[in-house]
Fold:
Amino acid sequence: MNGPSTPVLPLEAIGEEFRSGTKAYRKPGPIEGVTVHRLPRFVDDRGFFQEVYRAKADHPGSEALADFFRDVPVAQVNFTVVDAENHVKGLHYHLRQQDVWFCPHPSKAKFVLLDVRKDSPTYLRTQVLVAGDGQDILVRIPEGVAHGYRPLTNPCALVYIVTRTFDVGDPDEYRIPWDHPLVKDLWEVPNG
Structure:
């Protein structure tokens, strides 16, 4: 049994100034080599507990986090806070270093990634991730993937692990303008 038929309104019945394409909900796939790991949060009436790094799996349930860090030689752990309004950090990439980013609660940030490796199957693909404020994820960013972030809270904290210690004499940090045509529209917070 079919329900009552729904009337169909032709697009021509809409004023020309309001006609547009339908909203796109499909997002491009992830960038090759970028790994995202969702962190469990253990909540009780006192607050919550969360592991953000594990060197080895030594009890049931700890395997996924240890696996995520299996090939990540932790050389340095950094903590930064941005407290400026409407600020973008980045975009930069490394040739000899990977990053693992974590935006701790209650901070929230938009991570923007751009694959600049010309031989990558995802060359020039962008990826946007919203992290923090309950979206508890670790994001592993490989060499050759440009990365930056826009704080969505003020202040906004970021903890990041790098696989190479920072050397001011050999920084391994290559800049791309934050408003490069491939990413300039990705920083905005969408409306609608």
Remarks:
- The first helix runs from residue 63 to 68.
- The radius of gyration is 21 Å.
